[in-house]
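Format notes (please read before filing issues)

Several people have asked whether sequences and structure tokens are stored in separate files. They are not. Every record keeps both together, in the order shown below: the sequence lines, then the token lines. Line labels are part of the format and must not be stripped during preprocessing.
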Amino acid sequence: MDGKALDAVCKQVYRRFPEVAGCRPRVQAQGATSRASGSTKSNYLLIFHGKGITEDGRSLTRTIRVVADEKGKILKVTSSR
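Then the structure lines:
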């Protein structure tokens, strides 16, 4: 994944989940093969870790997992509480 696509994905994640803003994700390459054409497309798993504060003042660790393609299009987002 090139830097421009990575920055675009990070910007969207930071907007949706401000508690992980500023932390750089861990990036892992994943391969996806299309059955019809037999071509291989690269997907990437980006893992963000951050901490937020709840309304009662407690600390909350948050993990955001994002699957995106090589162009920076987000395919799937999951988060933990």
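For reference, the curators noted about this record: The longest helix spans residues 3-16. The chain is about 15% helix and 50% strand.
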